[in-house]
## 1
Amino acid sequence: MIKRLLPLYLLIFIFGCDPKDDPQPDTPVAALELTNLAYGSGSQQQIDVFLPEGRNLANTPLILYIHGGGWIQGSKEEFLPFKSSMNTLLSGFAFASINYSLFNVSTFENPFPTQENDVIEAIEYIESMKAEWDIEGGLILVGASAGGHLALLHAYKHQAIGNIQSVVALFPPTELSELYDSDETAAFLLSGLLEGTPETNPTLYNESSPVNYISPSSVPSIFFHGDQDLVVPISQSELLAKTLQENGVIYEFQKIPGQGHGFTPEVYPSVLTAASQFILENQ
């Protein structure tokens, strides 16, 4: 008798369950913000992550923002004023912003390439967390000033780490020996950061300059520079454009008339729009 009833009970179990009791696989994944995550053991190695609603492991690209501040100051919060616009312009993208170890001009702690290595660690952490965050897709690097330098350096020198798809830079240093010669302030900072001058430590200056790693296989690049920049001369971006062109790399260079180091609020909407269009076209 018991054997005869078993199939009946099994059918009741299979077909009698309330569908509302099952997980809903079609429910969109909710948006999620994760702040001050540690991507390394250093006190400044922190990352904020902004994951979009409906993200998936099929195609959710991530944009990593690297802040400026002359390698000696600044924070990941620099991204926040751009976050709303970027969400609108690049719907469905995930975003992240990092702190990195800052060079201390008094104690000479954290000289280069500490910052370069922090970017590598942050990207390796992102790669390790993709499944947990429900994202998969290309990684795009964006940075301003010193952050633009770090974004370009990683994109050209370490492109395979994170499978970088494209890079966006605002008023970036690109050739540090020439930047050293541009004025006394730059010379003072770089002689500490790079532990010497271009004459006494030429290897580190060469290894820390993004233009030295450009090849025909370099990633598509877009960059913006004010023609009145007195901190990072526009010649740094002009040299970048020349080197990219010589190597046949896809790039776009926008000179921003009347702008210095850091753009006025009226300029950023058009810059963000152009950068977003470039990213989408080069996915």
Note: The chain has one domain: 28-281.
## 2
Amino acid sequence: MKKMARSRSNRKIAGVLGGLSKSVGIDANVLRVIFIILLFPTGFFPMAITYGLLVFILPNEEDVIR
């Protein structure tokens, strides 16, 4: 597994799910669908807060030393 960072090329909002997809080797669209599916039953807040925290915690991919 690679070091996780926000993607600069595969992003819709902030690149969190694009970066996660690169690090675990799953298609980003699959992760986006899973995120949306989990967003509604959890009442928006847990998933939205997690995404928001990851935006600030994860570095951009060009900031990660490879």
Note: The two ends are 13 Å apart (CA to CA).
## 3
Amino acid sequence: MGRPRLHDEHLRQRLLEAATDLMAVDGPDFSLRPLVASVGTSTSAVYSLFGSRGELLEAITLRAARSFVDAQEAARVDDPAQHISGLAHAIRAWAKEHAAMFQVVFGRSADSPAVGEARDSTTEPLLRAVTEATEAGVLHGDPVVATGTIFAGVHGFITLELLGLYPADQADALFDAQLAAIWRSWATPEHVSAVA
């Protein structure tokens, strides 16, 4: 029988969750002391499980970006208009449920090729949906530009909502109105009312 592992996957996940919360508030310069204290371990566990502080920061961002993309992939439907609307709602729902991860994905973090790729991947589901809608004649214009403006509008709304700047009883209606306005700016004439 082998020796029990001192630092296991369960501890790794607990460290990632706690580190995500710290990084969302303090950025990548958060202290390891409160991190390890919050999960009842020591800094040696961080180095044993992640190799270095930089690798921990990278793991936090990659985990958050992967979760964000997975939430969008789960929202796929065949209808182009409903797919894009569904993606916007999935992004908002994920951000509200995982506010710390949202801050990590789009806030300050460690710079590495892997983090850059992970951040780039966060708009890929939307870009695919917009490209498909453009090819189907539902949207017009450059899909890359359209994706950028749609994502910026959705992201900006979510950021303000998470800051508490929209009354809770009005936020859903405001989001739907913004989404409809963004849609109208890119929809071809016969599809302008597809997202209302």
Note: Residues 1-5 have pLDDT under 50 and may be disordered.
## 4
Amino acid sequence: MNRLLPDPVYFAGLPKVITSGAVILRDEHGRVVIEKPNYRVHWLLPGGGVDAGEDARECAQREVREELGLDLQVGRLLTADWAPSRAAVSAPMGVHFVFDAGVIPFAELEARIIPQEAELDGWMVADDAALDLLGPWGARRVRRCLAVLDGEAEADLY
């Protein structure tokens, strides 16, 4: 018997991966919009998990609309990063895509952002020192994306 695709047992045995899409949204001073979810200790970039049938860019655009009330065009891919699986908490490997969402002046951000109360405790624009609120991994990822935007580094596409 000739099979073009492996049977479901083969797929069931493969590692699982969770993907997400997030954005780097800056103000006119180069500060980055970050948000404080009520379900995490640390702050995050605007974004979230990819739903069935959407790609990471669509996810990032949807999440920014849902979380912050902003309908933005999501631009180029800045990085594709990953986090290893963590057996201790049964977490699968994660692949995180971060896109450029451009620049919006701070006064306009203040006027337009409507945080999703069910999920967010707040938001802020973070300068370099405040990026540490994202935790070591998150801060390193954002600083790398900013270097790409400033032309100091190539996009990281692991």
Note: The longest helix spans residues 135-149.
